[in-house]
Design goal:
The protein has 420 residues and is α/β, with parallel strands linked by helices. It folds into two domains: 221 residues, Alpha-Beta Complex (Spore Coat Polysaccharide Biosynthesis Protein SpsA, Chain A), CATH 3.90.550; 187 residues, Hexapeptide repeat proteins (UDP N-Acetylglucosamine Acyltransferase, domain 1). The chain is built from seven helices and 37 strands. Strands 14, 15, 17, 18, 20, 21, 23, 25, 27, 30, 33, 36 and 37 form a 13-stranded mixed β-sheet that branches. Strand 4, helix 2 and strand 5 form a beta-alpha-beta unit. The termini are far apart. The mean pLDDT is 95. It binds uridine-diphosphate-N-acetylglucosamine and magnesium ion (MG). The site of magnesium ion (MG) has 2 residues, from loops.
């Protein structure tokens, strides 16, 4: 594979988000915006990823950890200045440099792959992504000469007359021959109106120098949607949620009512599992095959569900593992629990997992039967095939042995049951 390094521009203030959180750390479908961009950078084969950060840089740096090299842009002097800040890190590098914006969670790996392919095939100094949009306001317009070749990009603020009507816009995804990029960067002058150095000015410099510039037009303009406001955030969430649900349906998951089903980007679900309406499945949840989830279920991070499990209405499960064929069909809460196979969790069962200071674990063995309206005050352990009588309160630290019985408030524990 050829050399590829990626620079992600993420230093912008994100003023219009009106938030104390840096823009790129806002979440869309359970994942921060910048992580989507990182995923694309990794997926297309970047050997190194640099993220240019400014506003809230410590927080962004913390979140990225070792996944990328963070580079601080001391003053926000524009996209060309941001690239200049990265220049020192790419000293001696001669391969291609992919430039992405940190605020585009909807960008697809496939379109970037196609862009890189075209770039390499055409031997252009720069290939960038364009889209035709009904309302180009706010975007850089793609200027073409009489032969249809790209002659430059004119920013919205500077676009005058006919240029304002151009509907082909710069999405903000570029692949450069890195040496040409850094050389041309020296020629970029301050834009007097905006007091910024525009990366996009580089395109007309290339044109004037007689270099080949290529473009790839995406059919889906939402690809490049940059999140600038909370409204954009909601739009991105809606589009991504649709994409996620479509993917699950293609993989054989039944989604009864996509319009009321919320599944985050990192979730995995096996085929023939049915997700019923008004269900929320968050972050890293894993669900096996042939399960029935919902309606009105909320599965929170850290949940692992095996096959043929039923999680019914008005249920919440958090940081919990559930074995094959276990049933939890009506209004219950399980938190920090490890539940075996073939368990029945009766209606209204609650694990009281938080004692005011810390979270405690509940273990329920294979084939156990938890009667309706039981409260399990963690830490507790319910053995294999043990029974908790309806309405019992099993108090902190108790162990119900295998095949044992716990009944009452507080529950008395009998080690053997007479029948089962
Ligand atoms: C930019 C493009 C425009 C394109 C649009 C697509 C330029 C000059 N214009 O405009 O042609 O249509 O994106 O969305 O590039 N950033 C920094 N440091 C800075 C300034 C910006 O890192 O000093 C980052 C921002 O965090 C953002 C990206 O660069 O991720 C783009 O900057 P932004 O200010 O959003 O540029 P636009 O005006 O949207
Ligand atoms: Mg922008």
């Amino acid at each position: 594979m050829q050399n590829l390094r990626t620079i992600i521009l993420a230093a912008g203030k994100g003023t219009r988000m009106k938030s104390d959180t840096p823009k790129v750390l806002h979440e869309v479908c359970g994942k921060s915006i910048i992580e989507y961009v990182l995923d694309v950078a990794r997926a297309v084969g970047s050997l190194k990823i640099y993220v240019v950060v400014g506003h809230g840089s410590a927080l962004v740096k913390d979140r990225l950890g070792r996944e990328a090299v963070t580079i601080r842009q001391p003053r926000l002097l524009g996209t060309a200045d941001a690239i200049r800040c990265a220049q020192g890190f790419l000293k001696g590098y001669r391969g291609d440099a992919l430039v992405l914006c940190g605020d585009t969670p909807l960008l697809n790996k496939s379109v970037v792959e196609e862009l890189i392919r075209r770039h390499r095939k055409s031997k252009a100094v720069c290939t960038f992504l364009t889209a035709v949009v009904p309302n180009p306001q706010g975007y850089g317009r793609v200027i073409r000469d009489e032969n249809g070749a790209v002659a430059g990009i004119r920013e919205d603020k500077d676009a005058a007359g006919d240029q304002r009507d151009i509907t082909e816009i710069n999405v903000g995804v570029y692949c450069f021959q890195s040496r040409a990029l850094f050389k041309a960067l020296q020629g970029v002058r301050l834009n007097k109106k905006k007091k910024e150095f525009y990366l996009t000015d580089i395109i007309s410099l290339f044109y004037e120098g007689g270099f080949v510039i290529e473009t790839l037009r995406t059919e889906d303009p939402s690809e490049g949607l940059g999140v600038n406001t909370k409204e954009d955030l909601a739009v991105a969430e809606r589009i991504l949620r649709k994409r996620i649900l479509k993917r699950f349906m293609e993989e054989g998951v039944t989604i009864q009512d996509p319009s009321t089903t919320y599944i985050d980007a990192g979730v995995r679900i096996g085929k023939d599992t049915c997700i019923r309406p008004f269900t929320f499945i968050e972050q890293d949840v894993r669900i096996g095959s042939r399960c029935k989830i919902g309606p009105f279920a909320r599965l929170r991070p850290g949940v692992r569900i095996r096959n043929d499990v039923e999680i019914g209405n008005f249920t919440e499960v958090s940081r919990t593992q559930i074995g094959n064929r276990t049933l939890m069909k009506h209004f219950s809460f399980l938190g920090d629990a490890t539940v075996g196979a073939g368990v029945n969790i009766g209606a209204g069962t609650i694990t009281a997992n938080f004692d005011g200071k810390q979270k405690n674990a509940t273990t329920i063995g294979n084939g156990a039967f938890i009667g309706s309206d039981s409260i399990l005050i963690a830490p507790v352990k319910i053995g294999n095939k043990a029974v908790v009588g309806a309405g019992s309160v099993v108090t902190k630290g108790k162990v119900v042995p295998d095949g044992g019985l716990a009944v009452g408030v507080p529950a008395r524990i009998q080690s053997r049951r007479n029948q089962r």
